[in-house]
Design brief:
Blueprint: E1 2-6, H1 8-16, H2 24-33, E2 38-42, H3 52-62, E3 65-69, H4 73-82, E4 86-89, H5 109-122, E5 127-132, H6 136-144, E6 149-153, H7 155-159, H8 163-182, E7 186-190, H9 198-202, E8 207-212, H10 214-248
Parallel strand pairs: 1-2, 1-8, 2-3, 3-4, 4-5, 5-6, 6-7, 7-8
This protein binds pyridoxine-5'-phosphate.
Pyridoxine-5'-phosphate binds next to β8 and α10.
Length: 249
């Protein structure tokens, strides 16, 4: 089982001050060099975090980009131009804080088939994934629409607060994974996964990759804060010492 790390929130931080750091490109290299298999970025229609140039550079330099994107015509055009290692089609609403729910592939198989055909036409071994609920109807529709991967939305599982609720969700996810494998789809999972809830999901047989963002970037802030403060203090103390040496001359 592999890990794809979503680095959107590195870009959120960069954009907050209009600077060119922290750089999502640098983050992509750290993530990959540390052992993750892929780096995920969501190029949202409103470009609230990751921007066009980020995805172009990350895809070109790492060849390990999983581009999360809506089925919007403009975004599809950009993705077809960049041809990242993989694309994951997600539903997207302007005002949402993060992706809410899975894609309703069953509602418009023809439209999604048109998109998967375009990617396959450009490259026969395109990896095209549909982000869907653990719902057999959606799994089946994803297969009919020509996706070769699905990413099961684990948000509902992550939001469960009771043992019984979690067990029910895990069983639903397990059923969807089994059905997807039976009809020849590869299966990823993601959304809301964190250091507490990943273990039980990872016990389920059949997943290729987990896509995790918010919990990892949040953990990185606190894991790195001590080092960052120490480094800054070190420089200030060194300057203090240099001034002290000057006064002694
Ligand atoms: N997978 C998909 C399709 C997503 O939309 C997101 C959120 O951008 C993730 C995985 C990562 O979710 P989280 O940030 O909650 O780990």
């Amino acid at each position: 089982m592999e890990l794809g790390v979503n680095i959107d929130h590195i870009a959120t931080l960069r954009n907050a001050r209009g600077e060119d750091f922290p750089s999502p490109v640098y983050a992509a290299f750290i993530v990959l060099e540390t052992g993750a298999s892929n780096v995920t970025c969501h190029l949202r229609e409103d470009r609230r975090h990751i921007r066009d140039n980020d995805v172009r550079i990350i895809s070109e330099l790492t060849k390990r980009l999983n581009l999360e994107m809506s089925a919007d015509e403009e975004i599809v055009k950009i993705a077809l131009d960049i041809m990242p290692r993989s694309v994951t089609i997600v539903p997207e609403k302007r005002k949402e804080l993060t992706t809410e729910g899975g894609l309703d592939v069953a509602a418009d198989i023809k439209r999604y088939k048109g998109i998967t055909d375009e990617f396959k036409f450009k490259s026969a071994d395109s990896i095209i994934s549909a982000f869907i609920e653990a719902d057999l109807k959606q799994v089946e529709a994803a297969g009919e629409a020509g996706f070769n991967f699905i990413e099961i939305h684990t948000g509902r599982y992550a939001g469960e607060t009771t043992e019984a609720g979690r067990a029910k969700e895990l069983a639903r996810i397990k059923g969807a994974v089994e059905y997807a494998l039976k009809i020849g789809l590869n299966v990823n999972a993601g959304h809301g996964l964190n250091y507490k809830n990943i273990y039980d999901i990872a016990l389920i047989e059949g997943f290729v990759e987990f896509n995790i963002g918010f919990s990892i970037i949040s953990k990185a802030v606190f894991n790195g804060l001590e080092t960052a403060v120490k480094e800054m203090l070190g420089i200030i103390k060194t300057a203090e010492f240099a001034k002290f040496q000057q006064t002694k001359k």
